[in-house]
Protein: IclR family transcriptional regulator
Organism: Pseudolysinimonas kribbensis
Amino acid sequence: MCNTPTGHSRQIDPRRELAGAAPAAVQVLDVLRFLAGQRGPVAAAVIARDLQLPRSSVYQHLRALQHLGYVVHLREERRYALGIAAFELSSGYLRQEPLARIGAHLLASLVDRLGENAHLAVLHGRDVLYLVEERAPHRPALVTDVGVRLPSHLTASGRAMLAMLPEAQLRALFPDDASLAERGERGPHTVSELRSVLDEVRRLGYGFEDGEVTEGIASVAVAVAERSGWPEAAVTVSFPSDAIPPARRPALATRIREFSDELARRLGAGPQSAPD
């Protein structure tokens, strides 16, 4: 929160203002966002409960969305799922690629300032998918090329994003030790070890790894959150392990956060906050 010179503070909540002007529209979008965040179809009662909306309103919104093709009603299961119109929206987003387009410009600026490789990644199931990579002069090529997927629990970007997920979503992704992909002797091998790593990421406010993806290469990452608080992407800088010692990596994370904040703003979300 930013304090005014008089000592008073006031933080505008855009969602609250929108809800006051167009409450039904905000509720409909909340329903769609909720369905998009589930691993499978859900009952209307669950939507009403988790969004704290009247059931009558939820059923009304679902009927409208179903009529327009954004929601499908699975009668036998008494559950609702996203429809083909919602898929068409997501396909349009992918065609326009705003995340990759905006991210590419910001990463180029970040690399110019730091002189180290940087990349932008998103969560894709248990993996991270690399969307953009910017290489610094005289730095080694990395395995994190565009389109490459790596186990999220091993990468700095993956850890930064996993640390932002709700507990239920984290359990769904990693229900047992067998869900952690093996990659030699590196990285956490049990769910308990992964939770310890993510606890440290939350404490520090950034993801990190050193030699767990590529020997001799370390990475520091800061997640970019959606308005809902879920991770949308992560901005990562990778460098030879001996180029930036551990004591200097918190300062590096602070510089990366400036760019992740700017990316969040341009995508329509607010800046990320460092932990206390």
Summary: The mean pLDDT is 82.
